[in-house]
Amino acid sequence: MKITKSFLTASVLLVSSVFVGGVSSRDESASQKQISGTLHQMYEAEKRKDLNFVLSHLSDDFAEVAGDGKVYHRSDIEAGWSDVTLKDYKLSDCIFKLMTRDTAYLSCMMEVDATYKGQPFPQHFRVTTVWTRRKDAWLIRFEQGTIIPEQKKDSPAKQN
Questions:
Q1: What is the per-residue pLDDT for 4?
Q2: Cβ–Cβ < 8 Å for 63, 72
Q3: Domain total for the chain?
Q4: In CATH, what number is assigned to the domain containing residue 48?
Q5: HEC assignment per residue over 76-132
Q6: Handedness of CA 86, 90, 96, 101 (dihedral sign)
Q7: Residues 6+ apart with CB under 8 A from 21
Q8: Which sign does the torsion angle of CA 47, 51, 52, 56 carry?
Q9: What confidence score (pLDDT) does residue 14 get?
Q10: Domain assignment of residue 84, yes or no
C-alpha cells in the first residue's frame, strides 16, 4: 500500500510538472506564437490605419494604462485614432507566460517611430499586454505602456 501511494504521488508530481495549471508546454508555445503573430499584425494594421482590424483584437472591456498614467478604453482608442501615426516599430526582449488555458501575458521592449498630433512620440517603452481567449481568438484585455526615458548621450548609464 505504501509503495502504491508513493508511486501515485510521484506520478502526480511528474504530471503536474509537465502540465502546470492544466497547461502543457506545447499549449504555451502555440499560444505564444499565435499571440505574438496577432500583436505584430495589429501594429502593421496601425501603420496602414486599419482601425477595424485593431478593434477586432481588443476585448469589449479593454483598458490601457498609457505612458502618461491615464487609463484609456476602446472608445478612447477610436476617438484618438487619427492623432497617432505609427511609421515603424520593433519589439525585443519579450517575456511570455500562459497563465491559464485562456489567459496569457506578453511583455516586450518596444521602439517606435511615431507621432502624436504631429509631434514626436516617445521612442522606447516596455509594453505589457494581457490576453484572453474567446472561442479560438486571442484578444487584448489590458495593456500597460511604460515610457523608458531617453538617456542623454553625455551622461553615463546608472549602475546599481
A1: 42
A2: yes
A3: 1
A4: 3.10.450.50
A5: HHHHHHHHEEEEEEEEEEEEEEEEECCEEEEEEEEEEEEEECCEECCCEEEEEEEEE
A6: positive
A7: 99, 100
A8: positive
A9: 32
A10: yes
The answer to whether residue 157 is domain-embedded is no
- Chain segment 88-104, per-residue pLDDT in tens: 999 999 999 999 999 99
Helix ranges, 19-119 (H): 25-47, 51-55, 74-80
- Provide the grid cell at 116: 502624436
Q: Is residue 59 part of a domain?
A: yes
Give pLDDT tens digits for 11-55.
333 333 334 456 688 889 999 999 999 999 999 999 999 999 999
Show the 3-state SS of 69-87.
CCEEEHHHHHHHHHHEEEE
Which residue has 499586454 as its cell numbers?
A: 129
The set of cell numbers assigned to 47 is 501603420
